[in-house]
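Saturday, quiet lab. Running sequence design on the structure tokens for the scaffold JK sent over.
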């Protein structure tokens, strides 16, 4: 019989180890219903200088410490026998960050399981592809550097010889452009493994910006009220 293979991939993904464990147990439950026994499970967790292999989803909790979340390079999970329906969950730093694949001869079972995995894992899908973010960051940095260069050229009396102020502006624009690129890469990683209840870096950054804006507006309003009441 022909083998059906269905895949779901997310270029950028953020979620918890518990999400991955739930997906693993879901695959084991679905595949075990027909086998009437627990299907084989193989888990491989790769960190710098260490590879852990296990045959139970419990290893995702016991073998991974909260300090390991930013160090994990790959997590590869295979559920099911070599002959029959199999499910694979692959997590890695490089895009695609999350891949779920189901293969087997029974098309209906394959479609059903991949649909359930999709419903569970797609909650961690992050907007914008990694390549799109990189292009936007580079364009932002180039636009900033170009804008500062044009302003510097306009205020300089002799464009071929920069004054100390002009040189400082150029150096500052280069540093800010580099900061935009590096900061954007840190804010929008391809894979972000989180502790339960923790927001992503981008969300924490938005909260910080919002709090900063609110504090500035509050200070301005307080100053205006003080001037009126004085």
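Result came back. Writing it out in full:
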């Amino acid at each position: 019989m022909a083998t059906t293979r269905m895949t779901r991939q997310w270029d950028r993904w953020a979620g918890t180890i518990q999400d991955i464990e739930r997906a693993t147990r879901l695959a084991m439950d679905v595949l075990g219903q027909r086998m009437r026994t627990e299907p084989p499970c193989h888990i491989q967790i790769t960190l710098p200088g260490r590879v852990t292999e296990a045959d139970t989803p419990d290893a995702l909790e016991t073998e991974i410490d909260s300090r390991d979340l930013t160090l994990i390079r790959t997590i590869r999970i295979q559920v099911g026998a070599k002959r029959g329906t199999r499910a694979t969950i692959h997590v890695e730093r490089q895009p695609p960050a999350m891949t779920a694949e189901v293969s087997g001869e029974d098309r209906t079972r394959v479609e059903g399981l991949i649909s359930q995995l999709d419903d569970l894992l797609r909650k961690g899908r992050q907007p914008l592809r990694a390549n799109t973010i990189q292009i936007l960051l580079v364009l932002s940095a180039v636009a900033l550097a170009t804008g500062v260069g044009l302003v510097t050229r306009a205020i300089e009396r002799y464009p071929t010889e920069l004054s100390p102020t002009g040189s400082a502006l150029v150096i500052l624009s280069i540093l800010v452009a580099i900061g935009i690129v590096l900061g954007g890469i840190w804010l929008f990683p391809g894979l972000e493994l989180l502790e339960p209840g923790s927001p992503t870096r981008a969300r924490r950054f938005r909260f910080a910006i919002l709090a900063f804006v609110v504090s500035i507006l509050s200070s301005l309003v307080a100053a205006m009220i003080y001037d009126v009441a004085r």
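Notes for JK: Residues 4-124 form one domain. The helical segments are 17-35, 59-62, 107-121, 130-155, 164-187, 201-229. Ask whether to fix the surface positions before the next round.
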